[in-house]
Amino acid sequence: MSDFIPRADEAKAALAHLNTIDLDDPETHKDAISHCQATITALQKPGDLALESFTTFTIFPCLRTASDLRIFERPRDGPLTLQQLAEQTGAETSLLARLLRVITGIGVIHESGPETYTATPTSHILGSPAFAAGFRMFGKIGPNLQSFPDYLQATKYRNPSDSDSSSGIFQSCFHTDHSFFSWLAANPSIAHDFNTFQTTKRNRQHWSESYPVWARITEGVDTLHSDRPLLVDVGGSVGHGLRAVKAKFPHPLQTGQLILQDQQSVIETIQADMRDPMIEYIPYDFFTPQMVKGARVYLLKHIIHNWPDDKVVSILRNVTCGMRRGYSKLWLFGGIMPEWQAPRILSRMDIVMMVFMAAMERTERHITELLRRAGLVVTGVDIVMEGYGVIEAMLQVEA
Ligand SMILES: C[S@@+](CC[C@H](N)C(=O)[O-])C[C@H]1O[C@@H](n2cnc3c(N)ncnc32)[C@H](O)[C@@H]1O
């Protein structure tokens, strides 16, 4: 006889609470999910949950194989049978069935009948070229990434904070003397996939859809100087993000008002047909003082989570070299780790940052402290999607 005793009271309480939540309200969406998850956890047999957690390592390789076979794209025009998928991919039916059991089990593709598969909104996203690049990239580097427990054991479980030395976490896991970004530059096909993966938009929405870009630029200033840069996207990759932000400006700008900066090796990959004539593309190392002076906004999107604290302070201090006191703003877009109940995506990305760059996702309190060390003060915080937002800062007023 099973010794399983469901935590029925907990499940009932979570369900009762769920009934009080307006499922159409985006504000309470997170609450609804957490109560659904609490219900499942309370009802699931503890041993089953233990084994299920343990076997999560099988999920990514199945997804990656499905991506290689372009399975996410195929049921776009209607359900496909196992036989049809086998004919389209050239894979053996018995193998496909095994992979698809794992994939339908996490809800990415819907099993609409025996051996029949229907697309879902998530499979459409995973079938995009940007995610295909992400699967290729993480497929190549995943095994190294997974070797971090050995490093943590060897370093007596210290929080990694060294992104450069030959004994750092990345260097140990990847058997290299390079730091992550120089390793990437030395591996152009992985770098290409990395840059392509950066163009993914969470839920197909660019962050600037939920952030009042123009209002935040214009508020608190009488005149915007048209002879000064308006926005500098520091570490802006191939410029996909800046082009999306540009669409938020109500009137055409002058050449030189929008600037994209990234490493020389990244700027060089931007082909002529990918360049926007209104954007200036400048190779720049953010460990050197900012050379574009007096812009209204310096945007650092998904940058600081790539670096340990001291490096972040150095990047921020370099931005301040360009900032004009009382006029320039710094926008840090990225994860803002809540003090409790962290979203799963953010806590998992935090581990990726730890291995790649001895870096981390940080709380607002932690980021505020790093800004303070660089002579900046927080002037606004906007959460634009669960776990992610913009922290705005300006130069501290001189005493
Ligand atoms: C995680 S990506 C973020 C890209 C982009 N901001 C976005 O959100 O899609 C980090 C970026 O920092 C750039 N980067 C790394 N080291 C840099 C450096 N020393 N100077 C300038 N850019 C750098 C990388 O090339 C990459 O484009």
TrEMBL record:
Coiled coil: none annotated. It holds the Pfam family Dimerisation. InterPro entries: COMT-like, COMT_C, COMT_dimerisation, SAM-dependent_MTases_sf, WH-like_DNA-bd_sf, WH_DNA-bd_sf. Residues 53-126 form the O-methyltransferase dimerisation domain. One of its GO terms (molecular function) is protein dimerization activity. Signal peptide: none annotated. SUPFAM superfamilies: S-adenosyl-L-methionine-dependent methyltransferases, Winged helix' DNA-binding domain. GO terms for biological process: methylation; secondary metabolite biosynthetic process. Residues 229-375 form the O-methyltransferase C-terminal domain. The keyword Metal-binding does not apply. Keywords: Methyltransferase, S-adenosyl-L-methionine, Transferase. This is Putative O-methyltransferase. It comes from Aspergillus saccharolyticus JOP 1030-1. The lineage of its organism: Eukaryota, Fungi, Dikarya, Ascomycota, Pezizomycotina.
